[in-house]
Amino acid sequence: SRKVRAREVHARVCDATRSAGNVSDVRARACDAGVRRVGAARASADVAAKAAGTGTVDPSCPVAGATLVSGWECTLNQTDIKNNANKYYIIQLVCDRSGAYHVFTRWGRVGEPGATQVAGPLDMANGEVTFMKKFKDKTSNDWMQR
């Protein structure tokens, strides 16, 4: 059933998060609690992955010692076969070793390394605002309404 599948996906994501070694015991317990709460209405891998917060900083990010801020990342893809367009856009909010925040973006044709840009250093609030503006510019959607 969908409910069982959602629990299985969520459990696999939680296990992968725990085995990555960068997750606290509190987060692991919250992840385990999420396995019990996932219902048929939330039966998708996206929801399970978002709940577990399993992201990694893009390898092209030049910010030294950057860690990804959980829940503040997205990968956009635009494909138009008729016009031979197959583009991607990555947006991530990352925190450096000093505690400053940066909005990292990378874009280009799928299969190519593309170009990068870093906005920052910023405080957390300005980092979130910058991230949300970039997302709105690219999708015409509000980040909080996705």
Structural class label? alpha+beta
* Major sheet description: 4 strands, antiparallel
Give the oligomeric state of the chains in this entry, treating copies of one chain as homo and distinct chains as hetero: single chain
Q: How many helical elements?
A: 4
* Number of strand elements: 4
**Residue share in β-strands:** 25-35%
Query: What order do the SSEs take from the amino end to the carboxyl end, as H and E?
Result: HHHEEEEH
Q: N-to-C terminal Cα separation, in Å?
A: 26 Å
Portion in helices = 25-40%
Contiguous low-pLDDT stretches (5 residues minimum) are 17-53
Question: What overall geometry do the principal axes of the alpha carbons give?
Answer: globular
Structural notes for this entry:
With 146 residues, the protein is α+β, with helices and mostly antiparallel strands. Helix content is 38%, strand content 29%. The chain is built from four helices and four strands. The protein has a four-stranded antiparallel beta sheet with strand order 1-2-3-4, covered by helices on one side. Strand 2 and strand 3 (101-109) form a beta hairpin. Residues 17-53 have low confidence and may be disordered.
Identify the notable features of this structure and list them briefly.
146 residues; alpha+beta; 4-stranded antiparallel beta sheet; 4 helices; 4 strands; 38% helix
How would you summarize the topology of this molecule?
Layout: H1 2-19, H2 25-37, H3 45-52, E1 67-80, E2 85-95, E3 101-109, E4 115-122, H4 124-139
Helix pairs in contact: 1-2, 1-3
Summary of the model, kept short:
By secondary structure, the protein is α+β, with helices and mostly antiparallel strands.
